[in-house]
Amino acid sequence: MSVRHALLALLSEGPKYGLQLRQEFEERTGEVWPLNVGQVYTTLQRLERDGFVASDGDGGSSTQKAFQITGAGVAELDAWLRTPPDLSSPPRDELVIKVLVAVRVPGVDVHDVIQTHRRRVVELMQEWTRLKRDAGAQDVSLALVVDAELFRLDSVVRWLDAADSRLRRSAAVAKPLRDGHTPSAAPAQQLEAGARR
Amino acid sequence: MSALELSRVSKIYGNGASQVHALRDVELTVEPGELVAVMGPSGSGKSTLLTIAGSLEEPTSGEVTVLGVRLSHLSRNMRAALRRRCIGYVFQDFNLLAGLTAAENVSLPLELDGTSIKAARAAALEALDRFGLADRADRFPDDLSGGERQRVAIARAVVGERRLLLADEPSGALDSVNGESVMRVVRATCQDGVAGVVVTHDAQLASWADRVVFIRDGRIVDQTAQPDGPESLLEADPAR
Question: ipTM of this predicted complex?
Fold first, then answer.
């Protein structure tokens, strides 16, 4: 989350004070990201140093200054909005590694491991959904934030479902692996390669 | 008194070598006002569970109790009467009658059960109003959006004195925003004291439930714990 660019976005509507920016930031992000007021002023000072905002006071306390966005700040905000986030490199996914390892550990039922994670993710989704439900359909900012989290968690459940199904179908391969006899080198090498990711 | 109780319910289709165990010793209790999601992959037995809970099918063994009444103690006609009066069904493809308006679709089950046309229409209009569809009462299903059609189907399922709502993938054919509006209606219905059971393979839909039960190969294998409350989301991950 870029606090820096969120503050520029709020300032693009007009000059504002630090406390006002903090309050509006929390409102616009569905109050899911609490923001420390010190963080607001530190970020504003850096934005001013970089020429992206200007303040109306000289040498006074930050709390008494109104800040406004500069032309360079508008350009910076526009560039940031259009720059895609880095989705390219696969993350080192701890869950994937746990499932890959569970396939190989003797005495561990990988399907139980998958179900444990599936349940926990669904429990998290229930909590997010409850947050959205209690807020009502009118709180669009909150709904956008919660939807993003729900879609992310949903993709984890889908992957777990697919892994569960794939492992059941290839039980003939998975069972000898658990017994310590690798039927062919290829699947084991794939697992090791995956676990090293 | 529980709204629904399944006790050691099993269902076997076929016989001999071609036997299929659709359900095995299923135990499930749903209280009034509770919304339970049954989540599992295709072929896990979740739709069979729903049809047996709704007395559309009989179990091979075990007992189903709806609102304190053991279904095995009822004659066929009495089971049908219980279905009409107490249980509402919602399906993925809505199953609305195309030749009837929204209000007529909703009032039909009451009329079939002997309620006067006038009283049935009043109850239907009240149900449609509760689900934000008052201005759609005289439209035909073809003139409604998918989300509106499903909300009409839910109104039809809970109109009158129905206390048990059974839904099979109720938002499966809808986009996520329309699916959400359907689940908001299902939740509101349960808050009024109706017990709900939704079967689905969709985690987003299931997450609207108070409790999610996981089914696999005809067995209930797990269920979610009581929630900690939304505050825990903000504390769960310091990096967030």
Answer: 0.86
